[in-house]
Automatic annotation (TrEMBL):
CDD domains: PH_OSBP_ORP4. It comes from Sterrhoptilus dennistouni. Belongs to the OSBP family. One of its GO terms (molecular function) is cholesterol binding. It comes from the Eukaryota. It is found in: Membrane. This is Oxysterol-binding protein.
């Protein structure tokens, strides 16, 4: 605590301006209470990991003027301020009382200082959102009082002029007989003037009282905003300094040695503390995960595969696994880090065709973004005519096909004998589809109705893919992929997007289906929400957030993945993804962890137990795992990618011209081809022509529908070329599935069914 074994007596007695000392602060269920150096100064309680950190790194600060101070038992202190709560523990009741006294005195002094600065003698709470909302009422009242004063001023001027005339007439009188009436008139005018003057004085008094009572509130609001701004500036400056220090330390570090962190059990249920004593919160290798919404919280602890059953462990036998199952020599995980799958299983395939590795550099065209976007707020993005300046030279069908960049994950999943092990690869594949989006803030072209895109890599990579735009409003694309290596993937995706002024939300709707031919395992999942930030001001950046639930409808295995949204003040790794693979009985087998822009790892669970209940009322589960294995790692971007729309190697080839494709293929779209060539002005003209042509076709269909309705006939509307709508047997949803015929038509070069859309 403030003294004793925790680190000596406090640096100053209670009541002084500054109070320092050691206290134990609750960190998390893995490490429990950790010793921290606390400094109480100017109504702020700050803490540091060590005394030396006071010069450069503050771990947290709480404002006592609005904080609630509570004592749980003889040694504990609880400080809460809004959403922030500190659970502190002193060594003894005496030390606890010293700190409480110092905190209470500092809180009272902070409140007095705040009130004095705002010239307010009351003990009101600091300015809040409710105070700001109350400003409208006083302003309305003040306006009314000003109108009263204006009216009184007009009356004074009017009656004053009349009084002057009466007095002038009185002076010009010669006959005493008229003096009585004139004097009476003067008295009446003077009375009216007095009444009006009194009314004006009263109105002025009311105005002054009201202005005086609310000026203090306005001053307090202004002072609060200034303090908030200063605090934010100091925080940002401190973060910038820490960032620079970390960068310098990173560049100068010779490398980190790997090691194993030993952990020991504690008497507190659900709490595991470090055996290193003074080990920091951030530096420990033992990784833990917070709870996902609608899922039990869990913590992972890396175990020794040879000695994972330690006698001193407090982990119960709620779930057992065998480390010998994690044998990489016999496991399909062995090949998960290979850069090319062809080396091990692709000997029967033809050599890869040499394809292009660059496209023309992106032109540097200036554009007044606000003049275009200000009329788009709240509208559906797919219905807004946008210049190609916001696009990248790929269509949405090609972006959908780009999800197959890491198709080798599914090729490896075919070889898995265990359905839960196979689930790990499917989960890694579902995350890998977002890796290309981290720098890709440009908008793909909206496909025209009936537009298609094929990617035939059957001879090189073992799969062929076909996409078709099957609906225009709402925009929907159907996708079908067949792999001769033992899997088939299909989906119908509808993109819903909303522009909200500062950010753009993109919500993919529809399920993704994946079936393995030999086992019959059928996986279904849905995509998360993508958000593009800083649409108007600042540098564009994209984030993924939400949850993906992958379900194997044959074995009932599940994987719940959580995409943690980015937070500037979060200590989590940016773009973090975590999850757990469970079987049909709910038993956890693997822990998934990584980031959606870099890699995904899988850790086999060998032991699990239920810990204590968290503060949110959810039960913590502790998973003891073996060392993680990397399932997927992102390929590096090509050289000069920043000038080529940050395209990956696959993306650079997607719009490469190919022979024998359908006349509706995205590669043949003229505006997209012109944009890729850097001829953006011509591309904009061509884009408007294509959109007007599509609108004319839609108007003709609407007219045909009205005519059919008048004649009492049924109008079918647009019928997809290569897909048909069926009720999915697994999800029960109406979905477009491939009906066949495209590849046969390509072999025959018979495209007679294709419409003229370009």
């Amino acid at each position: 605590g403030g003294g004793g074994p925790a680190g000596g007596p406090p640096a100053a007695p209670p009541g002084s301006d500054t109070y320092k000392g050691w206290l134990f602060k609750w960190t998390n269920y893995l490490k429990g209470y950790q010793r921290r150096w606390f400094v109480l100064s100017n109504g702020l309680l700050s803490y540091y990991r060590t005394q030396a950190e006071m010069a450069h790194t503050c771990r947290g600060t709480i404002n006592l003027s609005t904080a609630h101070i509570d004592t749980e038992d003889s040694c504990n202190i609880v400080l809460s301020n809004g959403g922030r709560t500190y659970h502190l523990k002193a060594n003894s009741e005496v030390e606890r009382q010293r700190w409480v006294t110092a905190l209470e005195l500092a809180k009272a002094k902070a409140i007095r200082m705040r009130n004095n600065q705002s010239d307010d003698s009351g003990d009101e709470e600091p300015a809040s959102q409710s105070d700001k909302s109350e400003l409208h009422g006083p302003l309305k009242t003040l306006s009314s009082k000003l109108e009263d004063l204006s009216t009184c001023n007009e009356l004074i001027a009017k009656h004053g002029a009349a009084l002057q005339r009466s007095l002038s007439e009185l002076e010009s009188l010669r006959l005493p007989a008229d003096s009585g009436e004139k004097i009476k008139a003067v008295n009446e005018r003077a009375t009216l003037f007095r009444i009006t003057s009194n009314a004006m004085i009263n109105a002025c008094r009311d105005f002054l009282d009201l202005a005086e009572s609310h000026s203090r509130k306005w001053q307090r609001l202004l002072q609060h905003e200034r303090e908030q701004r200063i605090r934010l500036e100091e925080t940002i400056e401190q973060l910038a300094k820490q960032h620079n220090s970390l960068e310098r330390a990173c560049r100068g570090a010779p490398g980190l040695a790997s090691g194993t962190t030993s952990i020991s059990s504690t008497a507190k249920a659900g709490s595991v503390q470090s055996a290193k004593g003074e080990a920091s919160d951030e530096d420990e290798e033992t990784e833990y995960f917070d709870a996902m919404e609608d899922a039990p919280a869990f913590i992972t602890v890396t175990a020794d595969p040879k000695h994972h059953r330690r006698s001193g462990s407090n982990l119960s036998g709620a779930s057992e696994g065998h480390p010998e199952d994690w044998n990489l020599e016999d496991s399909v995980f062995e090949s998960s880090n290979q850069s090319s799958y062809n080396e091990s299983t692709g000997k029967d395939l033809l050599p890869r065709k040499r394809r292009r590795s660059r496209i023309p550099d992106k032109p540097n065209y200036s554009l007044n973004l606000w003049s275009i976007m200000k009329n788009c707020i709240g509208k559906e993005l797919s219905k807004i005519p946008m210049p190609v300046n916001f696009n990248e030279p790929l269509s949405m069908l090609q972006r959908l096909t780009e999800d197959l960049e890491y198709h080798e994950l599914l090729d490896k999943a075919v070889k898995c004998e265990s359905s839960t092990e196979q689930m790990c690869f499917v989960a890694a594949f579902s995350v890998s589809s977002y890796s290309t989006t981290v720098h890709r803030t440009a908008k793909p072209f909206n496909p025209l109705l009936g537009e298609t895109y094929e990617l035939d890599r059957l001879e090189e990579l073992g799969f062929r893919s076909l996409c078709e735009q099957v609906s225009h409003h709402p925009p929907a694309a159907a996708h079908h992929v067949y792999s001769r290596r033992g899997w088939t993937l299909w989906q119908e995706i509808t993109i819903a997007s909303k522009f909200r002024g500062k950010y753009l939300s993109i919500m993919p709707l529809g399920a993704i289906h994946l079936e393995f031919h030999s086992s019959g395992n059928h996986y279904v999942w849905r995509k998360v929400t993508s958000t593009v930030h800083n649409i108007i001001v600042g540098k564009l950046w994209i984030d993924q957030s939400g949850e993906i639930e992958i379900v194997n409808h044959k074995s009932k295995d599940k994987c719940q993945l959580k995409f943690t949204p980015y937070s500037y003040f979060s200590r989590d790794v940016p773009r973090k993804v975590t999850g757990v693979v469970t079987d049909a009985d709910g038993k956890a087998h693997y822990v998934m962890s990584g980031t959606w822009d870099e890699k995904m790892e899988c850790s086999k669970i060998v032991h699990s137990s239920h810990g204590s209940t968290s503060t949110e009322g959810k039960q913590k589960t502790v998973y003891q795992t073996l060392s993680p294995k990397i399932l997927w790692r992102k390929y590096p971007l090509p050289e000069n990618a920043e000038n080529m729309y940050f395209f990956s190697e696959l993306a650079l080839t997607l719009n490469e011209p190919e022979e024998r494709v359908a006349p509706t293929d995205s590669r043949l779209r003229p505006d997209q081809r012109l944009m890729e060539s850097g001829r953006w002005d011509e591309a904009n003209v061509e884009k408007q022509r294509l959109e007007e042509k599509q609108r004319a076709v839609r108007r003709r269909r609407e007219a045909e529908a009205v005519e059919a309705l008048e004649e009492g006939e049924e109008y079918e509307g647009y019928i997809p070329l290569w897909f048909e709508r069926k009720v999915d047997a697994v999800t029960g949803e109406l979905i477009c599935v491939y009906k066949g015929g495209y590849w046969e038509a390509k072999d025959k070069q018979d495209w007679s069914v294709c419409p003229d859309i370009f």
